[in-house]
Amino acid sequence: MQMNQLIELGGKREARMRIAESEKASANATVFETQAMLRFQLVSYFNELLLAQQRVQFALKTYELASLATDAAQKRVQAGKVPPLEASRAQVAQANADLELQQSKSSIVVTQQNLASLWEATLQRLERP
Fold this sequence. Notes:
The chain is mainly α. It contains three helices and no strands. It has a domain at 45-127. The longest helix is centred in the middle third of the chain and has 67 residues, at 12-78. The chain starts with 11 loop residues before the first helix and ends with a helix.
């Protein structure tokens, strides 16, 4: 019967252990950095989503005001109090407000997709009930 065992001489074992500890510390630092970056992206995307939702609310209110202004301008034109140009200006303002509303709604979809991408979710999970 024969038995073989490696005997490390000259501090090789201690050097090997130091290298292993160094590699372990490096791996832990990488994990910590990755987690920190993920948290940062999550908070950033969430804040972008909140901001996009606020933009939609403001755009909706602007559109409602522009609609009221258009109606008022049309009534004033019909009454002969202002020239038809006033109604046209109000309609342009309403169209611009509608465009802003549509763009802000689109930005919500983009920010939801960004947020969902962090955990490979689908948009259905992010929509409000």
